[in-house]
Design goal:
This protein is 37% helix and 20% strand. It is of the alpha/beta class and 239 residues long. Helix 2 packs across helix 8 and helix 4 packs across helix 6. The structure holds adenosine-5'-diphosphate. The site of adenosine-5'-diphosphate (ADP) has 20 residues, from helix 3 and helix 4.
């Protein structure tokens, strides 16, 4: 039997904490918990495993190595799309756009209209999950215009459209388009763009953002785990 080495990457984000156990070829195990539950992930780490942390709370967690989210995203994305030019990482409370050609970063962490929190607020208002909101948008026949760039005003536009009789699915499509428009403002001209982060699991969002940018976005398998995978790859490499 060949000996296989494993390492663990933990991405302790501000909304969700992610763990990946990686053997250099594939993900052996993964887990996603709420941000505050990251100690539960540490309990899954075996004694002899090296741990690399990344994400907002990366320094709060016991680790052998730690990486910025940008380095973790680069390493993780390189495993799927080695020639990527731009990475869009859409999380619960911030969105980062990394231009790999000149290593510049654009970040939105001030305005919730460009983060996962926006669709969460809208879904909560409608009494459904974000997955449910994405599924609604996918069934839309038309897209209701939602023009406000601020999430508070965009949500009140949503409410008044619904009161005027607009269909929920068309309003859901409008919310995704408003969200995509906000993110597109941060994205430079490029053809090979990769979307990662929990919000990249939302196919309606990926479609709306692709339409907005005029480029088909690439999404790796399990986009929410990409930074944890990048961290695990780093933990596997020699010190
Ligand atoms: P962070 O690293 O900032 O903690 P993540 O990259 O883990 O954030 O993404 C969390 C966000 O992803 C949340 O806003 C959540 O609503 C969203 N999300 C996670 N899974 C899905 C899904 N299946 N569909 C739509 N949104 C999702």
């Amino acid at each position: 039997m060949t000996y296989r080495k494993f390492a663990v990457g933990i991405d302790a984000g501000s909304t969700a904490a992610k763990l990946v156990r990686f053997d250099g070829r594939s993900i052996q195990m993964s887990n996603v918990v709420e941000a505050r539950d990251w100690p539960a992930l540490l309990k899954m780490v075996k004694m002899d495993e090296r741990v690399c942390t990344t994400g907002y709370f990366r320094k709060n967690i016991r680790h052998d190595v730690t990486l910025t989210e940008i380095s973790a995203a680069r390493l993780g994305v390189a495993r799927f799309f080695p020639d990527a030019e731009v990475i869009i990482d859409i999380g619960g409370q911030d969105t980062k756009v990394i231009d790999l050609r000149d290593l510049t970063l654009q970040m939105n962490d001030k305005c919730s209209a460009g983060t996962g929190a926006f669709l969460e607020q809208a879904a909560r208002y409608l009494g459904i999950t974000v997955e449910g909101l994405a599924a609604l948008a996918a069934r839309a026949r038309k897209t209701v215009d939602i023009n406000s760039t601020c999430s508070v005003f965009a949500l009140s536009e949503m409410i008044s459209s619904l009161e005027k009789g607009a269909k929920k699915e068309d309003v859901a499509a409008g919310l995704h388009r408003a969200f995509a428009r906000r993110i597109a403002e941060l994205v430079p001209e490029a053809t090979r763009i990769v979307a990662i982060g929990g919000v990249a699991r939302n196919a309606s969002m990926v479609r709306a953002l692709s339409d907005q940018l005029g480029v088909r976005l690439n999404v790796p398998h399990e986009p929410q785990l990409v930074n944890a995978l990048g961290a695990a790859a780093r933990a596997l490499s020699p010190k």
